[in-house]
Amino acid sequence: MITTLAGIDFSAPAHEVAPQLIGVTLLVNGVGGRIVETEAYDREEPASHCFIGETPRNFAMFGPPGRSYVYQSHGLHWCLNFVCREPGHGAGVLIRALEPLADAHGLAAMRARRQLEDERLLCAGPGRLCQALGVTRQHNNLPLSEAPFLLLPRDPAREVAMLAGPRIGISKAVDLPWRFVEAGSRFLSKPMRGSVL
DNA sequence: GCAGGGATGAACT
DNA sequence: GTTCATCCCTGCA
Predict the structure, then answer these.
(1) CA A22 to C1' C3, whole Å
(2) What is the three-state SS of A117-157?
(3) Is the distance between the Cβ of A140 and the closest atom of strand C smaller than 7 Å?
(4) How far are the Cα atoms of A39, A64, A109, A137 from residue A131, in angstroms, in the given order?
């Protein structure tokens, strides 16, 4: 089983994988950008979809790590997660925002899908980035090591300063500081007021 | 059958 | 900066 991708061991707990994903480039069919915002979710805390146990919707999170979990939120937005931990545990990292890269990585395609010029808002939010990358239910429970997914390691020459803080859009376990962002990024779904990691 | 949701965009103060 | 309608699917009574 492949659990290490882009230099990250996905069998680790989600709150350890999530900060390591900041700065990694995510591409879907060659379209994407640098990850600048993530959130960790785990079976053992009530904000997680897997807190209630395995269901037809969340079964992918109970599968092997290094795969995708895509779900529909509020009936119209898709959200992309990366599965973590050992198989059967139930944990994942929600990808919340990307920094769009040069047109070599499909900037034009993202603009067309979003019908929006502003780079800043192209991928600033889990629903938005799925729209920009064309992620839907078809992308649920797929290995991140294979097409259409591609993960490229962080640029070692580029320093990444990170902040950790409370997660967004949840009503339970709101105090857990499991949201991770690149400090100072212009491409976040919401500004971060948290502590330096 | 029904309540509520890991969100967004527009319309506001 | 803030609230508000809206999307429809999921899980549980």
Answers:
(1) 32
(2) CCHHHHCECHHHHHHHHCCCHHHCCCECCCCCEEEECCCCC
(3) no
(4) 19, 26, 11, 12
Residue A57 (CA) to nucleotide C10 (C1'), in angstroms, measures: 8
Residue A84's closest CA among A74, A75, A76, A94?
A: A94
Residues 6+ apart with CB under 8 A from A101: A25, A32, A33, A34, A107
Strand C closer than 7 Å to the CB of A56?
yes
Distance from CA(A99) to C1'(B10), angstroms, rounded: 24
Q: Token pair for residue A142?
A: 């797929």
pLDDT digits (tens, 9 = 90+) for A84-120: 999 999 999 999 999 998 877 899 999 999 999 999 9
